[in-house]
């Protein structure tokens, strides 16, 4: 289950918590997500990564676990 947020008319899905902004951005890059389609939010002990829903489509995100602080929701 992913959490949905809306910003400027775009829907974003929360995809996980990472140890740093760079780890979150690296995860998005490994999954061929355009940097313009992500946003990160500082959460004290790391950052949450959100990806614009329309950029994901039916794509399955691949995760090697590197940098991730939580499991798949």
Helix/strand-derived category reads: alpha+beta
Distance, first to last CA: 5 Å
How much of the residues is beta strand, in percent? 25-35%
- DSSP summary: helix tally: 2
Short description:
This protein is an alpha+beta fold. It contains 2 helices and 4 strands; from the N terminus they run ββαββα. Helices cover 19% and strands 33% of the residues.
Describe this structure in words.
The chain has 73 residues and is of the alpha+beta class. Helices cover 19% and strands 33% of the residues. It has two helices and four strands; from the N terminus they run E-E-H-E-E-H. Strands 1-2-4-3 form a four-stranded antiparallel beta sheet. Strand 3 (38-42) and strand 4 form a beta hairpin. The termini are close together.
Features:
4 strands; 73 residues; 4-stranded antiparallel beta sheet; 19% helix; alpha+beta
Strands, helices and their partners?
Blueprint: E1 4-7, E2 10-18, H1 21-30, E3 38-42, E4 47-52, H2 53-56
Antiparallel strand pairs: 1-2, 2-4, 3-4
């Amino acid at each position: 289950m992913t959490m949905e947020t809306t910003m400027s008319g775009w829907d974003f899905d929360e995809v996980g918590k990472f140890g740093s902004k760079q780890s979150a951005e690296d995860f998005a890059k490994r999954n061929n997500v355009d940097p313009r389609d992500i946003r990160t939010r500082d959460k004290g002990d790391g950052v949450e990564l959100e990806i614009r829903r329309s950029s994901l489509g039916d794509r399955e995100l691949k995760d090697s676990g590197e940098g991730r602080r939580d499991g798949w929701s």
